[in-house]
Write a structure and sequence with these properties.
The protein is built from three helices and four strands, in the order E-H-E-E-H-H-E. By secondary structure, it is α+β, with helices and mostly antiparallel strands. The chain has a four-stranded antiparallel β-sheet. Helix 1 packs antiparallel against helix 3. The relative contact order is 0.27.
Amino acid sequence: MPNPLAHHQEPAEAWLMPVFIAKSGHETDLQDALHNLQTLSRKDPGCLEYTVFADGQRPGTFVLFEGWARREDLEAHNAQDHVKDFVKGVDQLVAVPFSVTPLTPFS
């Protein structure tokens, strides 16, 4: 039986940490692509955080920290053209497929 109170609960936030490792010689191209993605994604509804970091110990490695108010906001973001275009084009810039780690904040 469905929980009648379930629709009154706030949906959980979604937090992710994708990591990108540039192919040799493509570090600047990947950085530029990530910067463009960051700029556009920060405007998407429900975006709480969307910041790309350069790994200070591993040149050519970039870490994205992103947070969304609701899982539905993340799904809508992933359906945006700027995200689909980035995912389609990033393969030629990365040494290995990028990884995405889901994060769960401590309560």
